[in-house]
Amino acid sequence: MDKAKAIKQDMVRAERKPLLEQLDVAYMRAQEAGDTAAQQDIAAKKQALRDATQDPVILDAQTPEELKAAQPSALQEIN
Fold it and tell me: Is the pTM of this model over 0.70?
């Protein structure tokens, strides 16, 4: 099951990559505009995406079916 979890974490990394890239652009725009509130919001979203591979829904999965259905909350919120 550990190998399956590692594969799922790699899948999450691939799914979050374009989201992080979009947030990088948004962060740069907020920085250019001097919008510190937007910068903080974006930074929090980016950190949530970075933490997605350690989401309990993945780590606590007991069966392959549970793991297959696992979707970290950070990916759901940002998508």
Answer: yes
What pLDDT, on a 0 to 100 scale, did the predictor assign at position 50? 96
Q: What share of the chain is helix, strand, coil (3-state, %, to 5)?
A: 85, 0, 15
Q: In the structure, what pLDDT confidence band is assigned to residue 79 with cuts at 50, 70 and 90?
A: low
The sign of the dihedral angle between the CA atoms of 74, 76, 78, 79 is positive
Residue 54 DSSP class: G
List of residues 6+ apart from 8 with CB closer than 8 A: 58, 61, 67, 68, 70
Residue 78 has pLDDT above 80, yes or no: no
Which distant-in-sequence residues (6+ apart) come within 8 Å of 30 by Cβ? 36, 38, 39, 42
